[in-house]
Design goal:
By secondary structure, the protein is an alpha+beta fold. The protein folds into two domains: 96 residues, Ribosomal Protein L25, Chain P (Beta Barrel), CATH 2.40.240.10; 80 residues, RNA Polymerase Alpha Subunit, Chain A, domain 2 (Beta Complex), CATH 2.170.120. 21% of the residues lie in helices and 34% in strands. It has five helices and 13 strands. A six-stranded mixed β-barrel has the order 1-3-2-6-5-4. The protein is elongated, with a radius of gyration of 35 Å.
């Protein structure tokens, strides 16, 4: 199950691009918390704390106990979205979704295979994963880090659908049960070079004919014409 971590934050009063640049220069990351009965509130969090928290998380679904400066009690939230820099991948912004521990939440969790399929070991098949994440619904305390699926029994042509997956207690999928999660494909067989060469030999040698230029007379006809012209001059 997802671990709940404590995280300190401060209200963010200065907004806008210029303020955000100065914030990041100080080693802080802009964030916002929304949801519940309160209005969305801009926050700022130490980049070192965020990086440490995310480095121990298997995905971006992290339960957080936010201790916001100036507030008497902490607020439980789910890391809803993490924005990364396109260059280097540094965290640029976070969205927190305020939640209640006794209310159902929806989240996307990673889907991972375990084991080696028998069709891969025996016949050289290829395991294809069609779903990388799964949308689920559960109480915050039941939120899993990931969903694992044992694929060791898959043979060539077999598939595992969402309906076949054993979900942890309290977790319900929010996608169609007929969706394919994993399938085992037959190995790709390349045509042997000997077969290609045999087919080429059966086709026979390629005949290349030289194209005659317009007005050009074939060699035998040219010789006959020269002989007649010689006789007429005698």
């Amino acid at each position: 199950m997802a671990k709940q971590v404590k995280l300190k934050a401060e209200p963010r009063t200065n907004l806008g691009r210029s303020a955000v640049r100065k914030l990041r220069a100080r080693g802080l990351i802009p964030a916002i918390i929304y949801g519940g009965n309160d209005k969305p509130q801009p926050l700022q969090v130490a980049a070192s704390d965020i990086n440490a928290m995310m480095s121990h998380a298997s995905g971006e679904n992290v339960l957080v106990e936010l201790e916001i400066a100036g507030e008497d009690s902490s607020r439980t939230a789910l890391v809803q979205e993490v924005q990364h820099s396109p260059v280097g991948g540094a965290i640029r912004h976070l969205d927190f979704h305020a939640i209640s521990m006794d209310e159902m939440i929806q989240a996307e969790v990673p889907l991972e295979p375990t084991g080696t399929a028998v069709g891969v070991k025996t016949f050289g098949g290829l395991l294809e994963q069609s779903l990388r994440t799964l949308a689920i619904e559960c109480l915050p305390r039941d939120l899993p880090d990931r969903i694992t699926v044992d694929v060791s029994q898959l043979n060539i042509g077999d598939s595992i659908h969402v309906r076949d997956i054993q979900f942890p207690p309290g977790v319900t999928p929010r996608v169609q049960p007929d969706l394919t999660a994993f399938s085992l494909l037959a190995p790709v067989v390349e045509e042997e070079p000997a077969v290609v060469e045999a087919e080429a030999a059966a086709a026979g040698p390629e005949v290349i004919t030289e194209k005659k230029e317009e007005g050009e007379v074939p060699a035998p006809a040219a010789k006959e014409k020269a002989t007649k012209e010689k006789e007429q001059k005698k």
